């Protein structure tokens, strides 16, 4: 269990990264996960790397070198997010909660307390805020500020009709978290009012997935399909040279980024997604 925790807690020089098993080289993905529905790093100190899709849910404790199957892991996993000390997984029309270490049985699956299937999730672990995009005859945005005990339907003015990805970025000062939405050919959207309204981010014309740092404001990565990264909330972007289907930023160290390449490989970046 050294891999991810080691890279987070030690100085990320090339030599140290190699000793942690996190040097930027290809890694093995579980069979069937070349085009995942989500890639997620949990907020736990030894942060598991999770991947989910039509073939189920698996996790790695060593940066993707080996993968483990949690209880119920063979059931399709549509979306997932971290909140409080748990992992919330959408199975479509039902939800399932796991402990952060993903060991033992997850809670029994329950039907969402609103209509529709949840296709995207994003959360703020420290504030227990969760956002869910549902699809049932149309797209709706739901919001909870108490870990999912109660949900509000948000106006979501300006939200695109077919979101491709959802991410929550760290707040700056006492402001709200920023909610980012990848909208395919409609680009990248951002909300600063918890999802009441959305504005388009200039410079991104094809956002297929999005990840945001939960520890550092303004750090965001987008697949277009090339991975683009920003350190200033979208004012400027850097090209990575890697085409990818999914991307994830470590919640404690924004310089540690994982991506599922278009060729089905898992790669790591130690410079915030500028290179893999």
Can you tell me about this structure?
With 276 residues, this protein is mainly beta. It has a single domain (25-269), classed as Neuraminidase (6 Propeller). Helix content is 5%, strand content 39%. The chain is built from 2 helices and 21 strands. The protein has helices at 3-9, 14-19, and strands at 38-41, 49-53, 56-60, 79-83, 86-90, 94-99, 110-111, 117-124, 129-135, 139-144, 152-154, 165-169, 178-182, 188-191, 199-201, 209-212, 220-223, 226-230, 238-249, 257-261, 266-269. The strands form 5 sheets. A 6-stranded antiparallel beta sheet has the order 16-17-18-19-20-21, with no helix packed on it. Strand 9 (129-135) and strand 10 (139-144) form a beta hairpin. The radius of gyration is 17 Å and the shape is globular. Mean pLDDT is 88; it is low at 1-21.
Question: How are the SSEs ordered, and which strands pair?
Answer:
Blueprint: H1 3-9, H2 14-19, E1 38-41, E2 49-53, E3 56-60, E4 79-83, E5 86-90, E6 94-99, E7 110-111, E8 117-124, E9 129-135, E10 139-144, E11 152-154, E12 165-169, E13 178-182, E14 188-191, E15 199-201, E16 209-212, E17 220-223, E18 226-230, E19 238-249, E20 257-261, E21 266-269
Antiparallel strand pairs: 1-2, 2-3, 4-5, 5-6, 6-7, 8-9, 9-10, 10-11, 12-13, 13-14, 14-15, 16-17, 17-18, 18-19, 19-20, 20-21
